Amino acid sequence: NAGVTQTPKFRILKIGQSMTLQCTQDMNHNYMYWYRQDPGMGLKLIYYSVGAGITDKGEVPNGYNVSRSTTEDFPLRLELAAPSQTSVYFCASSLPPRENEKLFFGSGTQLSVL
Amino acid sequence: DQQVKQNSPSLSVQEGRISILNCDYTNSMFDYFLWYKKYPAEGPTFLISISSIKDKNEDGRFTVFLNKSAKHLSLHIVPSQPGDSAVYFCAAQDTYSGGGADGLTFGKGTHLIIQP
């Protein structure tokens, strides 16, 4: 039972480079999320999606883009990477909040921008 | 403006004793609260939750207490075991105003260390 799968686990980028963090889930969840966690801080919501074709900004969306072409996949795109984007990124999925608010998280992607 | 606060960055408890992790919130619209546990190099995993219509929820060794008037919740672990050593995040959600679709608001976490 895979759950939420994120790739890659680690990545080092140079300033100005771009990359896509991949996230896929096999639980048929409509709701998916991207969070980032900075050292000593809680998780902050970057973007979320309530279903294929629908995305919305979270608390810290600047410098990121997302797409949701299928129920399973929710990639996060970093354009023109900056040192401030050094963080651990977590993808999560859930059933509709009023039915089951529990989020299932992937194992994370540790990103360093140098 | 931190809406969910965990004021203890770390907590050390002896094995077999009770661990009490605290969480305060400021948004009175929060009506659902969760605790997540996180090991190094892994994603957070759900531990226990409580709805605002309750003041206590129990699951094995884990009990969460909610004091709505004080906007305070706590997680009790009895007895504490070495495998409980992890970072614990408190999270809250307003499931009605925004439908809850915009996810959870997390505290900064408390690193629990269980000493043998």
Characterize the structure shown:
By secondary structure, chain A is mostly beta strands. Chain A has strands spanning 4-7, 10-13, 19-25, 31-37, 43-51, 54-57, 64-66, 76-78, 87-94, 104-105, 109-113. In chain A, strands 2, 4, 5, 6, 9, 10 and 11 form a 7-stranded mixed β-sheet that branches. In chain A, strands 1-3-8-7 form a 4-stranded antiparallel β-sheet, with no helix packed on it. In chain A, β5 and β6 form a beta hairpin. Chain A is globular, with a radius of gyration of 13 Å. With 116 residues, chain B is mainly β. Helices cover 0% and strands 52% of the residues of chain B. In chain B, the strands form 2 sheets. In chain B, strands 2, 4, 5, 9, 10 and 11 form a 6-stranded mixed β-sheet that branches. Chain B has a 5-stranded antiparallel β-sheet with strand order 1-3-8-7-6, with no helix packed on it. At the A-B interface, β4, β5 and β10 of A face β4, β5 and β10 of B.
What layout of secondary structure does this protein have?
The complex is a heterodimer of chains A (114) and B (116).
Chain A: E1 4-7, E2 10-13, E3 19-25, E4 31-37, E5 43-51, E6 54-57, E7 64-66, E8 76-78, E9 87-94, E10 104-105, E11 109-113
Parallel strand pairs in A: 2-11
Antiparallel strand pairs in A: 1-3, 3-8, 4-5, 4-9, 5-6, 7-8, 9-10, 9-11
Chain B: E1 4-5, E2 10-14, E3 19-25, E4 32-38, E5 45-51, E6 56-59, E7 62-67, E8 72-77, E9 86-93, E10 105-106, E11 110-115
Parallel strand pairs in B: 2-11
Antiparallel strand pairs in B: 1-3, 3-8, 4-5, 4-9, 6-7, 7-8, 9-10, 9-11
